[in-house]
Amino acid sequence: MKVLSDADLVSLWERGIRRHPLDRALLILAAAFPEIPRERLADWPLGRRNQALARARCDSFGARIQGWVACDNCSEKLELELDGQLLADAGTEIESGMDEPVSACGRTFRLPTSRILAGALRESDTTEGAARIAEDCLVEKTANIHWSEAELAEIGEKLALADPFSETRISLHCPNCGKDWHATLDLTSFFWMEIEGRVRQILFSIHTLASAYGWSEAEILALSDERRALYLEMAQS
Hints:
Helix content is 54%, strand content 14%. The model has no long low-confidence stretch (mean pLDDT 91). Helix 6 runs antiparallel to helix 7. It is α+β, with helices and mostly antiparallel strands. Strand 5 and strand 6 form a beta hairpin.
């Protein structure tokens, strides 16, 4: 695993700006884990993917995750502060081997992956998407299976229990109206917003220093953070 440099972040942003969040997550992982083929990354269970994203995020931006959410009852703006290291250190090791199969409805399933989720998102509604996930996760393929709603619910529940880090739920309380509720932390979208914010700062510094000294983008990105900040300060004085 490598810490993402400013050059890495700029490249990620440029390649992922028009991509789906699933693709953005794989782009980030491919940059942070260059030793692992991207085909393997796409077949990681979602919990392992999220754990790896949390590690990459902590190494690049620190463990503290800060943000805000609006209460859906009174619209009060609530500030959040989470420890990303808790998710990064949870669950199985990133390089662990085969995952245990899951039994549901008398059949055996493997855990959903980014590739399987991408296929489900192409379906027209949530029921068809759930059926697509069940079919793609099924270990022993059988033609023309008709899944009932009860079966899809059981399969979904069993898969979620077997991979608890596939979704990060946080408990929230509104001090204004007193409402308690749970929300899902979309780590990929949060990480991507941080990348976009950092890239804007990087490109501003490149523009300023290139205008002041005539340096190329590569030369500016090669500077240490400390030297670049000092040059930027002098160029703006």
